[in-house]
Amino acid sequence: MSSSKKYFTCGPTELYPIVSDAIIKALDEKIPSISHRGKEFEKIFSLTVHELKKLMGIPDDFMIFFSSSGTECMERIIENIVENSSFHFVNGSFSERFFKTAIELKKNSKAHKVDFGKGFNFGEIVIPEETELICVTQNETSSGAAVPMKQISELKDKYPKKLIAIDVVTSAPYQKIDFGKIDIAFFSVQKGFGLPPGLGVTIIRESCIEKTIYLKELNNNIGTYNNFIDAALYYKKNQTTVTPNTLGIYLLGKIAQHLNSIGIEKIRFETEEKAKMLYDYFFTRKDMKIFVENPFDRSKTIVVIDCGEKQKQIKKHLADNNFIVSSGYGKFSETQIRIANFPMHSIEDTQKLISVLDEADF
Amino acid sequence: MSSSKKYFTCGPTELYPIVSDAIIKALDEKIPSISHRGKEFEKIFSLTVHELKKLMGIPDDFMIFFSSSGTECMERIIENIVENSSFHFVNGSFSERFFKTAIELKKNSKAHKVDFGKGFNFGEIVIPEETELICVTQNETSSGAAVPMKQISELKDKYPKKLIAIDVVTSAPYQKIDFGKIDIAFFSVQKGFGLPPGLGVTIIRESCIEKTIYLKELNNNIGTYNNFIDAALYYKKNQTTVTPNTLGIYLLGKIAQHLNSIGIEKIRFETEEKAKMLYDYFFTRKDMKIFVENPFDRSKTIVVIDCGEKQKQIKKHLADNNFIVSSGYGKFSETQIRIANFPMHSIEDTQKLISVLDEADF
To answer: Cβ contact (<8 Å) for B224 and A100?
Structure first.
C-alpha cells in the first residue's frame, strides 16, 4: 500500500522526490556492495564533497567528515577540539544537548541560557577568557528560534582567537553560512536534504586539526576510529575512517547535484516565501499562536505553533488530510506543533497544508 | 547500466537478493520519513529485535543496541564496560583494532598476540587478574582465522567472573553462539546479513549495564548519547537514543525474518558445505595456498588464499568473469585474496567461482 502522507516533520521528513529513483539506480549499480577502500567509492566521495562545497559555498580549506548523526557530530567536535572549556548559547533542547555533550565528556564548559523560544542579546554576553570553542545552535529545532548569521559573524569579530562551531542541522542548506566567520558547521541529512536518516556531516576548517594534534600530544582522549586526525588523513584520500553509510554519501551527492541544478538562490528565495506564507497565516489565527515572539528570532525552516489543549485535534485534522507535522519538543510535546519548511516542501503543498488548517476552527 | 558483478567480498558484499524489493517497499511506505519516537518505528524496532533473537538464539535477558558500525560497537563496549583493563586475543587487524580502541580510550589493557592467521593455545594463556573484559575476535576478517565457540565457552568456565565480548562481525548469523558463555557480541550488517553498510549491532546481557552504572558513579567517561545506560532505557521502549539508520533497522528485520523462513540450520549446513567446497578446491591448487595452515583455525565465512605475485592476475581473471573478491589485508594486500562465504552466496555461484578459477593456471 503506497503512502499518500506528506511529511512536514522536522526530520526524519519527506524524502526529496528524486531520492527513490536515485536509490533504485544505486541498487542497480550495486553501490551498497562496493569497497570503501576502492576507486569507485573515492569517486562517489569526491563527487559528494564537490557538489556539497558548491551548494553551500564551502571554501577549499574546509574538509568534510561523515559520521552517523548530528549528535555524533557534537560528540566528535567536543572530543577533538576542546581541552577544557567550550561555551554554549542555550535556548532549547538541542543547544542543551550540545552543552550536555561537553559536560558528559568531562569538560569544564559553560553556558548562557535563555528561555525556550527566545533569542540572545549577544552584545551583553561576555564569553569567558578560557573558552576554546563557542557553540551556537544556529537553528534550534526544538523551539523554532534561529540566530541570524550576522550575529555569529559579530561573535567572531569580537573573539577572533576563539573557534566557533555552529549547529545547522535543520537549516542547511537554506542557511547561507559565512565560512570566513566560523570554523565548524554540522548537520544531518534527514532534514533539509530530504534523505533517509543515518548520516551526519561535519564541515571543518583544516587548521582546526592542529588543535586535535595538540590534544593528542597531551594524551587527551580524542575518541578512537573517528578522531579528526585520522578523519583528515582519510578525507585527503576521498575515503572515510571506517565502512560508512555508503548509500547515504552517494545520495547526498545526488541531492546536492540536484539542488545545484535548481540553484541555491532559488531554494533560499522559495524557503523565505513559504516561511512568510506560514507565519503570515498563523498570525491571522486566533486559536493558534506563533511560539517565537520576536520575528527577528524566528527560524525560516522550523515553524513552531502553540496550540494549547487543541494540539491533538489539530494534528489529527492535518493527519486525516495526509499532512504529518511534528509535535512540540520536551515539555511542549502536547501543546505545540512544529512544521518543517525544507527545500522538498513545495509551495503548492505548503499552501494546501494552510488550506486544510483553514477549513477548521479548533 | 545494471551491474552483473557478483560480490564475494568480505563486506560490504553482495546484497541479499530480497533487499532491493524490501527497500522499494520501504520507500513506498515512506519508512525513511517516520519519526523514531513514534509507534510505527517502535513496531519496526520490535519486529527486528524479535526476528534477530529468534534467528541467533538470543536469550530474553540480552538487549540489542544499534549503532553505525562494528568499529563503533568496539568503542562503546570499551567506554561502557571497562574501568581499567580489558584483555585481547590478537591475531589480525581487527583484533588489533579492538585492542587499540582500548588503548586509545586510555585503558591499561593487555593483549596476547600471535602471528596473523594463527590460532591460540587457550590452555597456555594466563589472563591477568585485573582483567574486567576478555575480548575475542571470534572471526578475524583480516586473516581468515576463527576461534571455535567451544574455546570461548571454556574461557568462561575458567574465568566465570570476567565478562566476555566477542566480535562476530563476519561470522553472524552463521556462527552459533552460546549466549550462556558470553556477555556481549557485535556485528555489522554489510557482511553475513547482506545489507547496505551503516548499521552496527551490539547484543548485550542486561546485567552488564550494572558495570556502566558503576563507571558513571565513578564519574568515568562513558561517552555521550550512545552510553549503555541511555541505550538500555530506550531499548525498553523499542527506541534508540538518537535518530538511527531507520531503513537499516527495518531491513535487518526483513532479512532476519527471511532467514528464519529458510531456517538457520539449513543456512549453517550450506555455509559449511560451501566452505568445504572452497577449501577442498584450493587444497588441490599448486599455485595458490590456503593461508590459515591449521584446518582447526580456519574460518567458515572468510577464506583467505595466498596467491603470491600472481594475486593481481587472479583478481583480474575473476573480475573479468564478474566475480569480485577482496584483496588481502594490510601487508598482505598485494599477495592474498579473501573470499567471503555468506548466506547470500549460493552454492551455484560458489561453484561457478571455483570453475572460473579452474579454467586458468596462474
So the answer is: yes
Q: Is the ipTM of this complex over 0.95?
A: yes
Distance from C-alpha of A356 to C-alpha of A195, rounded to nearest angstrom: 26
**What are the backbone dihedrals phi and psi of residue B204, each rounded to the nearest 5 degrees, phi first?**
-140, 135
* Residue A271 and residue A251 share a domain: no
Chain B interface test: which of A225, A246, A344 (most B C-beta within 10 Å): A225
Q: What is the DSSP letter of A92?
A: S
Considering only the beta carbons, identify the residue of B15, B30, B247 that sits closest to A5: B30
Q: Does residue B315 belong to any structural domain of this protein? A: yes
Per the structure, the complete domain to which residue A310 belongs is given by 6-14+264-358
Task: Tell me the one-letter amino acid at A86.
Answer: S
User: Which stretches does DSSP call E strand in B125-223?
Assistant: 133-137, 139-140, 145-146, 163-167, 184-188, 200-205
DSSP string, B133-153: EEEEESEETTTTEE--HHHHH
Angle at A81 between CA A144 and CA A138, to 5 degrees: 15
Helix axes B93-104, B70-81, angle to 10 degrees: 40
CB contact under 8 A, B29 and A221: no
Number of neighbouring beta carbons within 10 Å of residue A39? 10
d(C-alpha A16, C-alpha A3), whole Å: 15
User: Residue B1: inside a domain, yes or no?
Assistant: no
Say yes or no: B37 and B151 in one domain: yes
CB contact under 8 A, A224 and B74: yes
Q: Of the candidates A221, A238, A261, which is a domain's last residue?
A: A261
Tens place of pLDDT for every residue, chain A, 362 residues?
688 999 999 999 999 999 999 999 999 999 999 999 999 999 999 999 999 999 999 999 999 999 999 999 999 999 999 999 999 999 999 999 999 999 999 999 999 999 999 999 998 999 999 999 999 999 999 999 999 999 999 999 999 999 999 999 999 999 999 999 999 999 999 999 999 999 999 999 999 999 999 999 999 999 999 999 999 999 999 999 999 999 999 999 999 999 999 999 999 999 999 999 999 999 999 999 999 999 999 999 999 999 999 999 999 999 999 999 999 999 999 999 999 999 999 999 999 999 999 998 88
Distance, CA of A307 to CA of A323 (rounded, Å): 16
Collect all residues of chain A within an 8 Å Cβ-Cβ radius of residue B198: 68, 198-199, 244-248
Domain boundary among B208, B240, B261: B261
Do B86 and B214 belong together in one domain? yes
Interface mutation target, options A76, A224, A325, A327, chain B, most CBs of B under 10 Å: A224
| CATH number of the domain encompassing residue B143 | 3.40.640.10
| Domain identity same for A66 and A191 | yes
Task: Tell me whether residues A245 and B24 touch, CB distance under 8 A.
Answer: no
Cβ contacts of B247 on chain A, cutoff 8 Å: 196-198
User: A1 in a domain, yes or no?
Assistant: no
My answer on whether omega of the bond before A173 falls inside 30° of 0, hence cis, is yes
Distance from CA of A244 to the nearest CA of B (A): 6
Let me know: does B324 contact B300? Beta carbons within 8 Å: no
List, in sequence order, every residue forming a beta bridge with B112; answer none if it has no partner.
B89
